## 1
Amino acid sequence: MDKPPGQRRQIETLVFLDLESTGLPDLMPRRKVNVTEVALIAVPRKLLRTPLRCLHKLSLCVQPRNAVTLDAANITGLDNWDLQWCPSFGETAQVVEKFLYTLQPPICLVAHNGDKFDFPLLRAELKHSAPGIDLTAFFCCDSLPAFREILGDAADPQEVTEVLALGEIDNEFWEAFEAADITSASDSDEQLPSQPVERPTHQTPQTKGLAYDGIPPPPKKET
């Protein structure tokens, strides 16, 4: 999204985005990485520092085109058997689009490690399953650089033992957030950057059946 040179554009709504997927791009071919869950929490920017009561939430499970890996199923609790009754990503994307356009613009999508995972995956899925949906009107921000700025030289996040409530965070957090790069969704790489190292040998747990290439398992028989 273009803006006049030297003029900062005030974001009115922050939408925190988290995606679950069939697997990680460094463990499987990128084309096999599909979204299995979309979670969005939107908050007006001016209310972010106050008790977070005014929230807009959307969480949808998605039927992927490919099989969920065993590791992903164990982490997320979602597998092809559970997801076979869920809408496709194309159907889900229409709901997400309508949800976003109910919010006050300008809108910024915020995701932790979003530049390397969430944003490229979102754009790739939109291009494949919902090419008619255009999210370039929204900004994108990766929250990871802001937290690295706050934590400084802390090599291990587990070393940080004190967790502050939102209202207790000092101005350094907000300065780091303001300094974070905000780019148009159209500038995101449409492909996940990591190359596959090894294709997983295990898929969705056998106890719940397998679904390869987006074909759901047969329905359970009544006993």
## 2
Amino acid sequence: MSANLSSLASVLDRPRKTWDKVPDHEPLALFHHKFWAKSMEPEREWHNVRSKTGEVEDEDEDVLPGCYYLNIDIKGLWPKGLCIRPDYVRIYDALHRDYPLPMDMDLIGQTPCAVITGQPGIGKSIWIWYATRRRMATREPFLLYYGSKLFLFVQEGVYDVSDGWQKSDFRYFIWTFVDSDETRGGIPPHFV
């Protein structure tokens, strides 16, 4: 996605003066700074080199065969790192194919959505962090519901849009990530 489609002005249908930019020292801003427009090739290379060497898996190792590791390591942000499973890549690719950007709000009628389901402990929460990393690598704006607040990630940084946001504030459909396990009372009603 081009940089001009990932700017704050490009995603908003009308200016919003009440949305505050998250300070640069806050964990989500550091996450943005570390990964926005940064290629995922280093993570892929790590996986490819490891696969080619035929390295025998250590029984005590935390990284499963077929996975690669994404180091987040930002103080105050969970998780510190991700074991990227091939399933995460396949799920993201399928959703990206079925829900491309930009999708004009007037053309789509109802808000499209996808729900990732599965047994507890299979990595649904981790998938959200992987998906946000992918979106940042390709400079695609998204919303993240985190810590009972809604944050907009765009080229200029992260904005707290919790206060009075509406679907009509945006020019086109913006991917929104909500982890129902991390929200008291389940998914907030204004998302469904």
## 3
Amino acid sequence: MAASPPSPPSSPPPAARPAPSNSLLAALCSSPAFLRVAPSVLLRAAPHAGPDATTFGILTSALCRAQRPTAAVDLLRCKPGLLLDPDRRHCRAVLASLCRCAPARDALAFLDDMRRWGVSPSRSDHHAVLDALLREGTAAEAYEVVAKQMDADGARPGLPEFERALRAFRENGSFDAVEEAFDEMLLRGLVPGARVFDVYVGALCDKGDLAGARRMLGCMERAGCPPGVTTFGVVVAGFVAAGDMDAAREVARETVRRGLRWDAPALSELVGALCGGGHLARARGLLLEVLRDGCATRLDASAFEHSSLEKELCVTRPRGSMPGGRRSGASRRLPCSN
């Protein structure tokens, strides 16, 4: 039987396309001029240069250090097209940089990118975005993060997150939103503490619902969170601002009847609120009564009469500031009898 002809030598497998030299890339990234063009050059060369996860990590880290997080986001959005999964660590670093250096809504949009890539935002990621939104005064978007997005990502919001949303809504005078956020908190079974109640009661006063604010003092008692002297001070300042000095005195005296005493920080908050609203002169007699009968330690009432002290107090707070936060409506789901 004739021998079969020898088979031709098999050709060697094609060489794998080498990834760009990541060590060289890291060195070049120290040049601002190179960093400006590197992302576009990399993306144009991507099908042939074969960038790997390390390549993207080097560039995104360099862009974040250069305070160019939006360029880093553009790079990360190209990874799935190159069959590279965005890395959790890099995503979180880019998100943190967006929260520091970019418009807050860019950071909010990047949360959607992370979810699409299978990277679930953590509680700390949500807090960073919440901080950025509140710094820019976008209370509605911040509340959306608290009330909806955190739950969807398995990071259930608690009292601290709701308190921040309440304060933001009070600051911009969104009384209906304060009411909605407070009710949502109660529906979730979260029991407000004194700080949250102070914000809510202050919002009622800002809104002009002084009867509701006064009722809330009783609601707090029945909810197991008896109002402290600071909460009473918020209501006192609200009545003074409304010109109802009789009601303000009555609330101040109720504070003393409950065995509460105005310590220096609480008295400072009350005076600051009155001064910030331009009502200090109107409340002079009330404050002297508090100094005489309701202070934790015996203070010299004559010190308050000194005009230089009064002026000093008036420049310590911006006009319009009030203790405990700012603005809202009345509770419907706390154990209030009326």
## 4
Amino acid sequence: MTENKIEPNRKTIAEFIFIAELSSECICKYVELGENSESVFALFNDKIKWNIEKFYETYRKELYYENDSMFNGYINIDTKTVSKIFDNKILDEDGNEIKVYTENTYKLKKGKTEKYYKKHPPKIAESFERTKAYDKYLEQEFNTSDLAEINYLSVKDNGTFFTLLQTKSFLDSLCEEAEKAIKDSKKYEEEYAIRLTRLIEKLKEYSEMIISKATLIELAIRDWRTRVMECSLKVLKAMPVEKVSEYNLKTRAFVLKSLLTTLDIGNSQANIIRFIANIIGTSEGTVKGYFIDFSKDNHGMKKKEAFQKEMENALNMCNLLSTESENKRYVIQLIDAIKKIKDAQK
């Protein structure tokens, strides 16, 4: 299993963002389908269950090793089944131990340690033997070799995963815990801020589609979207120096746009926006908004001082490239272009 170290005071933040992102993904897909049926609900329930299982498998040792529940007790963990799947030792026909269900599983042959096999992954044939042995083990224990059919996570009070994510008390409890953890830690987590900003922008982009398909989309789904957005905004607002991060993202987008313009990259604005969004880790809608701001005074920033500071940051970024090279002239052109914009709005 991949080692993922998460500090205890970040656990609730990680849980909230995971659920918010999963909810956002399901809402957007649901809106695209525009269909209400039992089969669609079952499909989403399976998708949510699978994703939560993957989250549990990834962080089991670090967050839930001796726990019998997760997400503030809303999901139960069958610890006996989990132990059989992840912890039990099984042997192949030759008596070699098989490491249970990890992406880097391997046979522990005599004289070879786990450390050895991490540096020297098994051959395809050995991997195939391992898979056969593990499948046989699952068949013996659970009458199936398909892990998806083995239920070790369940929603409290016999609820469904699809309904749980729409439950107000569930999302509110995760939101409150995340806000508290952020305020207690007083740390700014840029990765989390970017992920929250991205999902908020994504949900905003789908608002018009929801309005146009209002008769096809259940009120519960519309309320779900509103709730996820409101809670995500609360958690994002609780993070310190949120505005600094927003300006920083905008500055990165500005530098990349200026660089591509200087290099005379012949491409559509839509492709350039998509490229920049992927590079800086935000949504295309956010970058499109930045491009509109770039045509306004102070790049749409309320305070001129903030704009001047970000232009200095942009120049500092560009100066990292100002070394002797054949194409230094491009860097000089880029720096001059940014200086002109900065000086014009003093």
